[in-house]
Structures are given as structure tokens and as C-alpha cells.
Amino acid sequence: MNILLIISVLLAPLMGLLLFFYVHYRFKRGDITLFYRSYFWGVLSVIIPAIIYLILYTQGYTALSNLRRILFYSFVGIGFGQEFGKFIILRYLVLPSSYFRSPSDGILYSLMINFGSLSLLSILSLILFPEIPPYILITNVFVSIIFAVLMGFFVGMGKVRHNRFIDSSTGLIGAAFFHGSYQFIIETRDFKLMVMFLAGSAIITLLLLFKSISISDEVKNDKSIS
Prior knowledge:
The chain is mostly helical.
């Protein structure tokens, strides 16, 4: 079997395992039951994008014959469909927990849900689309970190600022937009635009990570967040 094919299937669960070991080491005395459950809930979240894709397929919207269909498929079928499934888990199963206190927590949970989702999606993609290049699936895992950080940060901000609807909606829309943009670039094969997209997304992701750490420190010190 092609080594890239094996990597494309195992990469997402391996990333989830590495993240689990990090959190287990970082919070040795903490209860991380909800954290590893998030991975398996992420696997179940695939039900939602699968239903959305099936609806689009039966209506003929997966036949990308023109620019409008590519846009609709990229942003609604893939971007919104996949991120909405993960959002439901993060917002309604994880966010209410007392262990979820800040944007940094949101990012960690969001990443775990994301890796769970991709663990199944990578397998389904190979089954349904055997012609898909394995490197696309491998790249998807790494790029999905951007979407997970965006969603996790803003959903976490909603808990800190007690403004869950607006911040959570921002997280969902932001993740769906970036995911849809990435898919659109893949479909149009505009690799110059891909370079700019990845560079800009990486900067935004790093800024959100640093900001989440700063806010987490403020939460620990019981300072007000505005």
C-alpha cells in the first residue's frame, strides 16, 4: 500500500493522540474525560456534513460545472457543512462544562473535535473518491488546524464575556468562511492564491493563539474581560 495513503488515513487520529498526551501531561491532576470524549464526538459530527453533502448530491449541486456551483459547493457544502457539524459538538456538548473556561480551552477542545471528525472523513473520502490524491487529505489535516483555532477561540470568548450567541456565531462563520475559501482554492487550483491564503491564515492563527493565552492568564487572575 502507498505510504502516503497510509499517512492520509492515520494522520488525523495520530494528531488527536499527540494532543491528548500533551493535555494529559499538561494537566496531570485534572479530569480530562471530556477532552478525549470530544474526539469521539467529533467522529459522530460527520453525520451532519454527510447529510448536507447527500442533499447537494441528489440535487446535482456537486456537479461543478460553473463558478457559481463551485462557490456554493465550497462554502456551503464543504465549508459550512463540515464546520457546522463540529460547531454543534463544541457549542452544545462541550461549552456548558465547567472545565471549559477560556478561549485556550475552546481551542484545545475544538482541535480534538476536529481531529475526530477528520479521522472518519479521510476514510470516507478515500472510499467515495478513490481518485483523490493522498496529499490532499494530508494537507487537509494541517490546514484544518486554522479552522479549529478560529472556532475554538471565539466560542471560548463567548463563555468568558457571557455573550455566547454572537461570539459563537462569529466562530462558526469565521471557520466556515476560511474552510470554504480553502476548498474554493482547491477546486480552482489557484496555487498562488493558496500561498497567500496560507500565509494570512497562519498569521491570524498565531495571533489568536497568543491572545488566547493572554486571556487565559487574566481568567486565572479573576480579572474582567471586555
